Amino acid sequence: MTLEADAVLWLRTAVATWFGPTDTGSGDQDGRHGGRPLQNGGPQDITGLNGAAVGQRLGHAPLALSEPADWPAIQRAAGRHNLEPLLFDLVERGEVSVPRETRDIWEGQYYRNQIFNHALFETLAALLAAAEENGANVIVLKGPVSIARRLRDPGLRVMVDLDLLCRQVDLAVLAEIALDLGFRAVGENATYHLAFQHPELGAGLELHFDLYEAVAERRKFLEQVINGAEVLEVDGVSFLAPSLPAEVVLQLAHLLNHDYRADLRHWLDFALACADAAPRQPEVRRLLRLSDLEPEYSEAVAITSELFEIDPGARGRKVEPEIFSGIEAGLLDLRDDRAFLAGARVHSSWWARARYAARLVVPSPGRWRALSVSEDSGVGTALFRHLSRVLRRGRTKVKRRADSAAPADSPRARLFRRRKGGRRGHNT
After folding, report:
1. What is the pLDDT of residues 39-61, one digit of tens each?
2. What are the residue ranges of helices labelled H in 258-309?
3. 56-82 burial, b for 16+ CB within 10 Å, e for fewer?
């Protein structure tokens, strides 16, 4: 096993401690939650995701947490998976033991993330206030929801953007509000959202006016999400969020949209949402039937059980070895998740595409400074090495796109083949 694979395995084992017995105390005085994030007084059991069974490791002893092979590799993996603040919290609560240097790095990331998220929540508050003044309904998705419902501490969950769900009739006014708040439109957009970037905050915004294509009956499901929304609050900001059952299905659709190539942060979000929604299983099942995602849900829960080394025996569902091997490979290759050469296609004009291509070929000022410092053999050699790096990354990403397009490797392809065959989802 490579150092990178060992590091990811360490992360998976460490994160699994979040499924232990819940602390039912009142929490820490500094605002960070006490004990586990699961609510309702104890661990939940949901379709094979059995929080009480964390101790039943699948061949990996908890002692491995304190004696990993390579701490720098673990630090790099924690950054790629956006888990540094969460790991710092586990260290502070005595769940895992790490070297002082690693602990200090994660502490710094925790406080930096707390400052960044506070600014992001201030922007969210301004956007929601303007939307309310204009009569636009907005549902907040992903990071803020996970923080409000489970993590409670804004510093624990890394966010790079805000994801908001709205009706298509409200899209124009919300786009104008975003522009007024300093966001800039980012080229062409996907079939289900408009994308923006805030140059000062360094954060993105996605206005989702439709659901991921994995969701069947999208219009009906969207209306149920909006009509069944619940009020949450975090960092002094109140907002509407999907109900717990709807959150589970939306997070599943997000994982499917990325063909399961998501970082451990997103898998943890899904796992905790499933556990949190355990008392509302009838509603979860109803929405899964409406979205026709029952088989995919069972598979994703089984994947989560294996990822975090939780005994998956409660429902007897096992993940196919080739599927899980693909997921493990994806966890080691997160930096290449976004298609490299396809990026030029998302820009709205040939001039914008040319500028994008130029940015790929010509080093950015920061990259150029790094090249100038690290290369002592002249400008030509530095530029040659930069171009070689660009071509290597491009070749890797083109190959990855071709491989992921193969039906056997794509969860979405399996889903659409099932539907094309006229088979509705059912529990397996």
Report:
1. 333 333 333 333 333 333 333 33
2. 264-276, 281-291, 294-307
3. eeeeeebeebeebeeeebbbebbebbb
